Amino acid sequence: MSAFTYFLVGVNTSARAKHGRSPSISSSRFRRAVGFPSQRGEILLKGGSPMGETRRKFDKDFREGAVRLVRETGKPIAQVARDLGINAGTLGNWVDADRRRREGGDRQPSEDERAELARLRKENAELQMRCDVLKRSVALWVSDAMGSR
After folding, report:
1. Where are the domains of the chain?
2. Is 47 left (phi over 0), alpha (psi -120 to 50) or beta?
């Protein structure tokens, strides 16, 4: 029997007619014949990762060269990734990281910036306290004015 024949034996086609859904696999014979594992643990016992592929590592020179290709040629990320044989999402992450690095998005604030930030936080706390005092005084004034009627 071919795999297609096993597929036909293992599929419950009445489910589609009754519920309008895709057919479901109802036979364990189908899973065994086609080679589907009955438990997730069987995949891990055979070795390798559950996804079937190992994670590739790219050296710094390759990453920088790929980003430079995108930046200097103006080609779309997907096309450059396809030409290099890598995932477009991976190349997109490298390009974004390079863009952030170039724009200074990953840098730490300088001493002057930290001092100004501390001063502004202190000033903000003082202004919030003043605002709270004014709100309470207005609330007291309104309750006193309403009570005198």
Report:
1. 3-45, 60-103, 118-149
2. left
